[in-house]
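Look over what follows to help learners.
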Amino acid sequence: MAVLHNRVSQKELKQRLLQETEARKTISFYRYFIIPNPQSFRDELYISLNNLNVFGRIYIAQEGINAQLSVPESRIDDLRNYIHSIAHLKDVWLNVSPLMNTDAVDQNKNTSFWVLKIKVREKIVADGIEDPAFSMHEKGHYVKAETFNLLTEDPQTIVVDMRNHYEYEVGHFEKALEVPSDTFRDQLPMAVDILQKAKDQNIIMYCTGGIRCEKATAYMLHHGFQRVFHLEGGIINYVNEVKAKGLTNKFIGKNFVFDNRLGERITNEIIAKCHLCEEPADTHVNCANEACHLLFIQCASCNEKFDGCCSYECQQVFQLPLEQQKELRKGIDKGSNIFNKSKRLRPKINADK
């Protein structure tokens, strides 16, 4: 019987990836469609992708699939042919990462993923929607990069960023409206409330790859909005289209990505600040103190000064012997530990000690 999950240590998997000689591409796709037996679909997918030496993270639910993959360049066509052989995915768009000057990544290796993980979940995007009348059948109109640019020339068009605050902070479209929350489930009702007076205006919603903004447009239509659009393929596809067609790029800064890279630089502008010293910076890191593991922005100077930690206190813990650190970590639930959960609740981090 085929092994349907990884049994090799993370350390060894990372080492194997670094020893590879072939370049990889990061590819993502999603689709909302009914999957009657998610577990069976998951197992079939795992066997096929594992045989193609594909790494990545995939969520399967009855409402569809959400996938981010690392694929050897020589197997991209094989991957595309396999995915398109699945009835409900025969024409699904595969988003290829532009991989522009990405931080903390060897450009030739592409260390976005080093293991294949496929999980069955209740939903592919946690949305908090409990209304049984809500449906993904009615959703906003797709717009490509060229149409997006044209629509945004109209001052009455509202562009809405449906990503979390820490994503928006490092990069976003010109004049994009932020829905200031770090959970999609909170953003949906907030967006409806914020945009109540704009029900007759053009509203374009966007996210990283399209999965959140597509559901967001369906939610807006469900609440009586009329002229709702979403950017096809999200920021990733927009950047590729702009480059391929020589269009004006209206995205500024860095695109946050949910893999080991934590970001793809789109333009040279740095629009965020180090969360410790407030100097210009847009590199996300996780606090080196594993008992904290806070996701935050840190400049190179503070990274060196604090050993990659988010505070003097965490640095003191990080400098303890490893076994003592492990003892301190016992029983700690870090949860979703993200700096700046909202603009009103910024933790105070002392960079002067």
User: Anything to note?
Assistant: The radius of gyration is 21 Å. Residues 141-245 form a domain with the Oxidized Rhodanese; domain 1 fold (CATH 3.40.250.10). The first helix runs from residue 10 to 19.
